[in-house]
Specification:
Blueprint: H1 3-18, H2 21-34, H3 45-58, H4 72-82, H5 86-107, H6 116-140, H7 155-168, H8 171-174
């Protein structure tokens, strides 16, 4: 099983099954709003380029569409503008600035200008921090019925969540043969 199949199973097979119909309908409504959206309202051009590069690094184009073709950066901007509160928006925008500071320090350029290997190294660092934050969240909070606590104040957690939600609620992804329900299986 490759990474994309694992993500498909996790998001499409597991998470969306448990999403309430009203949440799923809200996400689909948000996707419809994207068709009428103008340029980004919260993200500046530099931030938008970073979000696009991050999303495409998380879900690159393979034999199926990537996050960019699924409209991830537009979705992220919509959620930042319409759904996130000021604190969440600040955490997210500070996280984008941190990503660019990391790549500037390590490679002398912005994240969007980095090679795939350089981007991968930064995502590995962000993933390690996410693991630490998740462990801290688990040890400091009790989950509902044993569910793990979520590191909601971690930028990378937010970015991955938005990227995956954007991807699996997009029309272009739902039209891919790999994502069609096959009753013969």
């Amino acid at each position: 099983m490759d990474r994309r199949e694992a993500l498909q199973l996790l998001m499409g097979g597991a998470a969306l099954q448990f999403a309430s119909p009203s949440l799923f309908a809200s996400l689909r409504t948000a996707r419809i709003l994207l068709d009428t959206q103008a340029p980004p309202r919260t993200l500046n051009p530099q931030q938008n380029a970073t979000v696009t590069a991050l999303a495409e690094t998380i879900l690159p184009k393979t034999d199926t569409v990537g996050a960019t073709e699924a409209g991830a950066s537009q979705f992220v901007d919509l959620i930042l503008t319409e759904w996130y509160n000021e604190n969440e928006r600040t955490i997210f925008l500070n996280g984008l600035a941190d990503v660019n500071a990391r790549t500037q320090s390590a490679f002398g350029k912005k994240f969007a200008d980095c090679s795939a290997d350089q981007r991968g190294k930064i995502l590995m660092e962000l993933g390690e921090q996410l693991t630490k934050d998740a462990q801290a969240a688990r040890s400091s909070a009790s989950g509902y019925r044993g569910s793990p606590a979520k590191p909601n104040k971690n930028f990378y957690y937010m970015m991955r969540d938005l990227t995956l939600t954007s991807y699996y609620t997009s029309e272009v992804v739902s039209q891919q043969p790999a994502f069609q329900v096959n009753p013969d299986r």
